[in-house]
C-alpha cells in the first residue's frame, strides 16, 4: 500500500496518514506499506505558522502517528525524495526502513526556529546513528545529503533514479522479516566510553556558539535524556523541553525571522514596481572592478555560483596582489566543496580572467564596481562603463553609502545603474542590500535579486539615501557608543553589554576589525574633520549638533584598529586579532574628558543597551516613514544577515515590538531630554504615531505610513 503525504503537515495530512495506516493494518491483502511525499518532496515537517497557536497545532497529532507507524505489524518503508525535514524526518524515523533519492536532503532544523524535534526525534535519532552524530544534526539543524545519511546509517538505501520503485522493491524483500530490530524505540542508545564528558563538552560548545540562544542548549538536554533514560521517560523530557521552548519569546523571534527572509523576496517600490511584474535579465557573465577587500570576495562569490568573471584592477601591481588574494580564497573554498577545485574551475581563463584593460568588459552582462569610496572616482568609472559596456549590461556599485543617483548621472543609462551592497567578507556574508535609484528600472531590480539568489545570498531591496538602510541605522548606534565613552564608559564595557545582548561583536571590536580609517576618510569627505573643517569649529559640535572627535583623534594617533595593532583595543601585533583593554586608551579618555570639562560618571548596563539600540531603532522608524524600505521585515533581515544582530531576538524592529513601542518611546524621550543636542535620540514622528494609535502589531505598521510625499 502507498500512502502519500503533503509538503508540510496539516491536520488533513495527519488524518490521511492515520487512516491509511489503520486501513493497511486491517487489510490482510496488504503485506507492506510505503510512505512517500507528493510532487517529489517527502516533507518539510510541521507547519511553522501554526506554532503561534500551539493548542490547535496539527503537530500535536504527529508523535502518536510516528508511534503508530513504528508499531505497525507490517513493514513500513519511507521513500524520501526532495527533503525530509523536522517532523518529516521524524515520520521517516518511525518507519522500519528508509530509502532516499541520491539528491534528497534530511535534517532536524527545529533548532533554527527556536524549538527541538518534538515528535520523538530527539529520542529515536541517537538510537539510530549514535549520540555524537545525532547531537550534531539536532543542535545545528543542518541539512545532510543522502550520501552522508547513508554513511551515518540514517537511511538504508540510496536510489539513483526512481525512489518509489526502490522503496517498493525493498518493502517486498523484507516482508515476513522480524520487525522488532527495526523499531528504534526498542533499541538502546549506543554507548560512548566518555558519554558524560562528551555531553558536558557539547553543552559548553553550544552555549559558546549560540550566545544567549536557548534552543541548542535544550536540544543537548533532550539528547542527554535519550542517553540516560528509558525511551518513554526520554519522551516525557522531550515534550517538557519542547513546551518550554514553544512558550519562549525566542521561538517566536526565530520563526518571524524565517518568514521575514522569505517575505523580502516579494519586493516592491513606492513607484509601483514589484517582483510580480518585473522580469530579470539573464546574467551569464560578470565583471568586478577593484580587487581590494570587497572585490576579492565578490569575485569568489561569482565563481562559486558558476558565473564567468572578468576581474579588473587599476594597475599591474594591484592586479597581481588582487589575483593572489582571489586565488587563495578560491582554493580555500574549493577545499570545502565536494568535487574541489575541478568543480570551481577557476584556473580556466574562460571562467576567471584578470586584467587592467576595460575593453574586456565589452560583452559582460553585469559589472560590479568595488573601488575606493570616492564619488569622483566612481563617477569616472561609471562614465567609462557607460561608453564601453554593451547596451543591456547592468552597472552595479558596491558603495557603502554614496548617492546612487549621482553615480548614475555619470552614465547615459541610469535605468541600468543599481547599488549592490555586499558585506565583508563578501563570499561569506549572506546579505546583499540592493539599492534602486530614481531611474533604476524594475528589470534591473529583478536582475539584482536574481543575482542574490544565484550567489546564495538574501537580497533586500531598499531605496536610496545616505548609508541606505543598514549603515544609516548603524550611524546613530555607533555614535551613542562613542558618546558613552565621552561620558565615562570604556570600549570593553560597551562591547560586553552588546555582546551579552547577543551581537556577534560589539561596536568597538567591530570598528577595530573594519578599520577606523574607513570612517575617518568618509568624515573627511563630508567636511566633518580634517583640513576642510572651517577654523573655529567647536571640537565637540558640528552643524549645531553634538559630535565626538574621539574616533578622529585615534586616527590622528595612527590607531586604525587591528591593522595597526591598536585602535579602541590593544592587539598582540599589527594584524593581530586578540583584543585586550588598553591602558593607553583609558588614560587618553581621562585626559580627553579633562580637556573638555566632562565629569566622568558611572553608566549602567541598561543605559548602554538602551541608548545604543533605541537610537538604531529610532532611525529604523524614520526609514520606514520615508518609504526607504517597504516594511520592518526588511530592516530586520538586513540586521540579522549583515550586522550580526542576534537572530533569536528577531531583528531590531521585531525587538522594539517585543519591548513595547510605548517603552521605546518613553526611554527615547527620557534620553533626549538629557541630550537635547543629539537628534538620534529624539523620538521619530512615526514611532510617536504608532504609539498614539495603540501600538499595533508589527505586520500592520506600514498601513500607518503616510505615502503622500515619499522621498523617492
Ligand atoms: C501549550 C500547548 C503545547 C502544545 C504542544 C504543541 C505540540 C506540537 C507538536 C509538535 C510536534 C513537532 C514536530 C516537529 O518536530 C516540528 C517541525 O517539524 S517544525 C518544522 C521543521 N521544518 C523546517 O524548519 C523546514 C522549513 N523549511 C525550509 O527549510 C525550506 O522551506 C525548504 C523546505 C528547505 C524549502 O526551501 P525552498 O525550496 O527554498 O522554498 P521556501 O523556503 O521558499 O518555501 C516555500 C514556501 O513554503 C513555506 N514553508 C516551507 N516549510 C514550511 C513549514 N514547515 N511550515 C510552513 N511553511 C513552510 C515557506 O515559508 C514558503 O512560503 P512563503 O513564506 O514564501 O509564502
Ligand atoms: N570594506 C568593507 O567592509 C566594505 C563593505 C561594504 C562595502 N564597501 C565598499 O566597497 C568599495 C570597496 O571597498 P574596499 O574595502 O574593498 O576597498 P579597498 O581599498 O580594499 O579596495 C579598493 C580597490 O579598488 C582598486 N581601484 C581603485 N581605483 C581603481 C580603478 N580606477 N580601476 C580599478 N580598480 C581600482 C584599488 O586598487 C583597490 O584594490 C567601497 O565603495 C566601500 O565603501 C566596503
TrEMBL record:
Residues 467-571, 608-694 form the 3-hydroxyacyl-CoA dehydrogenase C-terminal domain. Residues 286-464 form the 3-hydroxyacyl-CoA dehydrogenase NAD binding domain. It is found in: Peroxisome. It holds the Pfam family ECH_1. Keywords: Fatty acid metabolism, Isomerase, Lipid metabolism, Lyase, Multifunctional enzyme, NAD, Oxidoreductase, Peroxisome. GO terms for biological process: fatty acid beta-oxidation. It comes from the Eukaryota. One of its GO terms (molecular function) is delta(3)-delta(2)-enoyl-CoA isomerase activity. The keyword Lyase applies. It catalyses: a 4-saturated-(3S)-3-hydroxyacyl-CoA = a (3E)-enoyl-CoA + H2O; (3E,5Z)-tetradecadienoyl-CoA = (2E,5Z)-tetradecadienoyl-CoA; (3S)-hydroxydecanoyl-CoA = (2E)-decenoyl-CoA + H2O; (3S)-hydroxyhexadecanedioyl-CoA + NAD(+) = 3-oxohexadecanedioyl-CoA + NADH + H(+). One of its GO terms (cellular component) is peroxisome. Its EC number is 1.1.1.35, 4.2.1.17, 5.3.3.8. Pathway: Lipid metabolism; fatty acid beta-oxidation. The keyword Magnesium does not apply. Belongs to the enoyl-CoA hydratase/isomerase family. In the C-terminal section; belongs to the 3-hydroxyacyl-CoA dehydrogenase family. Monomer. This is Peroxisomal bifunctional enzyme. It comes from Malurus cyaneus samueli. The lineage of its organism: Eukaryota, Metazoa, Chordata, Craniata, Vertebrata.
